[in-house]
Structure to design on (227 residues):
């Protein structure tokens, strides 16, 4: 399998006033196509910082981030925007547009990318069927349960055929029963569709469903296991 994401001695330091905060102290990680990786750790471990860097939402203080072999630190703003289109983001709080229907929310990334209306409509219907929401396409977020909203968010993340999905606590804002359903859906996307997934979580229960787990503490990887 081709390497999708690679970090090499990645470091990130923030200044809190004049005091340096070492969020990442040197993280080296490799994610291959078809992988399903959980990044586990308590608050303050550096996992959210690592997620932001892998998502090209922030730049490292030192070290390298390679996405499909491209060193992200060498890119200008337009090239960074192109790289971000290779990433499907799924957030804890869904980030759906309230006035849009489920289908319109899924179509939005395709509209921004210049996909034709006919193709947007076709693909959004296919994706919503994939996540089990074929009969809820015309409903707005306020008419959907938390689990259904997260399914829409996952469909939206897949809209532009990303190289990988980056998930930030995807079950953190829903009840445990619904969380189990979402994890089964995510696992199915990985096993049946070959979607590469990097999931950041603090919930050890979720990691059993993934292929690999990386545990972080104080800005470094302290353990890596194959599940």
């Amino acid at each position: 399998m081709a390497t999708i994401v690679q970090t090499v001695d990645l470091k990130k330091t923030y200044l809190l006033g004049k005091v340096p905060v070492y969020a990442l102290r040197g993280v080296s990680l490799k994610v291959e196509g078809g992988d399903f990786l959980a990044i586990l750790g308590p608050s303050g471990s550096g996992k959210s910082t690592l997620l932001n860097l892998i998502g090209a939402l922030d730049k490292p203080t030192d070290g390298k981030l390679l996405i499909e072999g491209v060193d992200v630190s060498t890119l200008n703003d337009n090239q960074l925007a192109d790289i971000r289109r290779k990433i499907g983001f799924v957030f804890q709080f869904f980030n759906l547009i309230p006035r849009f229907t489920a289908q319109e929310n899924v179509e939005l990334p395709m509209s921004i990318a210049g996909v034709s209306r006919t193709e947007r409509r076709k693909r959004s219907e296919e994706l919503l069927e994939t996540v089990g929401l074929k009969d809820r396409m015309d409903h707005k977020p306020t008419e959907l349960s938390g689990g259904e909203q997260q399914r829409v968010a996952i469909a939206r993340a897949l809209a532009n055929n990303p190289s990988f999905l980056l998930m930030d606590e995807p079950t953190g804002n829903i009840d445990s029963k619904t969380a189990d359903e979402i994890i089964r859906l995510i696992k199915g996307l990985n096993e049946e569709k070959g979607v590469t997934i990097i999931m950041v979580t603090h919930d050890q229960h979720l990691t059993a469903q993934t292929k690999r787990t990386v545990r972080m503490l104080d800005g470094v990887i302290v353990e890596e296991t194959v599940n």
Notes: The chain has a mean pLDDT of 92. The chain is about 35% helix and 30% strand.
